Amino acid sequence: MKDATDVRDVPPGAAADPDGGYARGLGSRQIQMIAIGGAIGTGLFLGAGRAIHQAGPSLIVMYAVAGVAVFAIMRALGELLTYRPVSGSFADYAREFLGPFAGYVTGWTYWLMWTVTGMAEVTAAATYLDYWWPQIPQWTAAAGFLLLLFAANLISVKLFGEVEF
Description:
Elements (H helix, E strand, L loop, with lengths): L27 H13 L1 H14 L2 H26 L6 H9 L1 H33 L5 H18 L1 H8 L1
């Protein structure tokens, strides 16, 4: 088993950079707020309100059960990270322990999940905007939010962190 910072894997003439050329661009407060916002999400209030209205308060118990499952998964990922730190994502763990196909499928499934989630969040934000300004078409507001996030991502990591904060 080789270490993630093993210099024998570095091509001749290249510098052995243990960080892989990456630098931290977000502060602790930005990362914490992005994590909280990602856990809560814009669509959670929109979807949960309708679901609680239909199913009643027992839905809160189901959210708690799902939260325990997610906690267990995140705890397991934390253990993997402690055992074998990598600069990639958890798809690298799937690739290492289950094979290249599992890593490939995991990575693309994760990308697809965030693409669908991002569109749902932008649509939920446009739905909220439609409540106050019904004369603005919902697709226009959603496209505006999407362009704003895209522009913030293109400019800099710091700006993205501030916008998300």
